Amino acid sequence: MSSKKYNLKKIKSLPTFEDDLKEKLKDPKFKQGFDLAYKRWGIAREIIEARKKAKMTQKDLAKSLKTSQSFVARVENGGQNLTIDVLSRLADVLSAKLKKPVKFEIVGKI
């Protein structure tokens, strides 16, 4: 049994993940990378949900797409850069529909 004592005041004063993220998002380069990763994650979640609703495994989906299971895994972990053609094929194979795949909203000066 460990006899280590912790200073609770010190632990409570540590920044939370949210505090740390809020601070890091002030850096434009970090924010740009974070925003891209968040968008990829959102698309990946949608693909996983659609695959599960279709009662398909990654291997089943890969076979239908005529690709490898590792490609599907990269898609689902956000590590694969997707083209419009791949998104369209995914939608077809999963009997899904792409809803407004791209919508531009001007948020700043050009």
UniProtKB/TrEMBL annotation:
- Name all HTH cro/C1-type domain ranges: 47-106
Q: Name one Pfam family in it.
A: HTH_3
Q: Name one GO molecular function term.
A: DNA binding
Please name the SMART domains in this protein's record.
HTH_XRE
Identify this protein by name. Transcriptional regulator
Species assigned in the record: Candidatus Falkowbacteria bacterium CG11_big_fil_rev_8_21_14_0_20_39_10
